[in-house]
Write a structure and sequence with these properties.
It comes from Piscinibacter gummiphilus. The chain is α/β, with parallel strands linked by helices. The chain has a single domain, classed as 3-Layer(aba) Sandwich (Rossmann fold). It contains 5 helices and 12 strands. The strands form 3 sheets. An 8-stranded mixed sheet has the order 5-4-1-6-9-10-11-12, with helices on both faces. Strands 2-3 form a two-stranded antiparallel sheet. A hairpin with an 8-residue loop joins strand 10 and strand 11. Helix 1 crosses helix 5. The longest helix is centred in the last third of the chain and has 20 residues. The two termini are about 30 Å apart. Bound molecules: cytidine-5'-triphosphate and calcium ion.
């Protein structure tokens, strides 16, 4: 299927997507991050653009080319991602949070490299919680249709449903990791108020196209 034959069911809509990991610096040469290639989020951005949407992609540090026609904003930390996403969100009809946002960041940032020399004991770091971008967007008075992701190592359905409720979003997409991280294929399960449905295992672009279709149907059903 080439882009030409993709149904343009997102024409006239703006989609905001987060993708990739975030990186939380400890000092100028090191930091903490999550495992995420960004491939799923970038594939969704491409599929949404092909479906006629105007797409804004907010990306953490990844090594991926920008999909054609997509407006990309690069960030490093969760706080930077939050600061870009929150003011943009009300101008979009859909928000898809695929990013593997670091849940915590070091409570203080050292402006010089922490040296091993002279430190007899290993340093310890106090962490502080990052803002929850998806939950914050879902709380906006003029909120877009919000889609969360849940990458879990176990009890996928239970955790996905718990996130649906806790973040108060209409759709959560689950996948089991870390087996699929960085791979070109994936298996997704859609969890909403009605129940759950598996999308058959496929490459990430095919899954992204199927997912974009599912989201378009839900959005159009909601506004019909
Ligand atoms: N998310 C977010 N901002 C955060 C943490 C998560 O926007 N600070 C989004 C993710 O992009 C994803 C969804 O929330 O769409 C679920 O992320 P996940 O890490 O699975 O959930 P958490 O609420 O952080 O719970 P936990 O990591 O403990 O499972
Ligand atoms: Ca998390």
């Amino acid at each position: 299927l080439t882009a030409f034959f993709v149904p343009k069911n997102f024409r006239g809509h703006r989609l905001l997507i987060t993708a990739g990991p975030t990186f939380e610096p400890i000092d100028p040469v090191r930091g903490i991050t999550n495992l995420s290639s960004g491939k799923m989020g970038f594939a969704i951005a491409r599929a949404a653009q092909e479906a006629g949407a105007e797409v804004t992609l907010v990306a953490g540090p990844v090594h991926l080319p920008t999909p054609r026609g997509v407006q990309r904003i690069d960030v490093q930390t969760a706080q930077q991602m939050y600061d870009v996403v929150l003011p943009q969100a009300p101008q979009h009809s859909v928000f898809i949070a695929t990013a593997a946002v670091a849940d915590w960041r070091p409570a203080s940032l050292s402006d010089q490299k922490i040296k091993k020399n002279g430190n007899k004991v290993a340093p310890t770091f106090e962490l502080t919680e990052n803002p929850d971008i998806l939950a914050a967007v879902a709380r906006l008075p003029k909120r877009p249709y919000c889609v969360g992701f849940a990458a879990e190592s176990h009890d996928l359905l239970k955790h996905a449903r718990e996130k649906l409720e806790r973040k108060n979003v209409p759709l959560v997409v689950g996948n089991l990791g870390p087996a699929t991280f960085g791979r070109d294929d994936n298996q997704l399960v859609l969890v909403d108020a009605q129940g759950h449905r598996e999308l058959p295992r496929a490459d990430k672009l095919s899954l992204a196209r199927a997912l974009v279709n599912e989201i378009a149907q839900r959005l159009h059903a909601k506004s019909a």
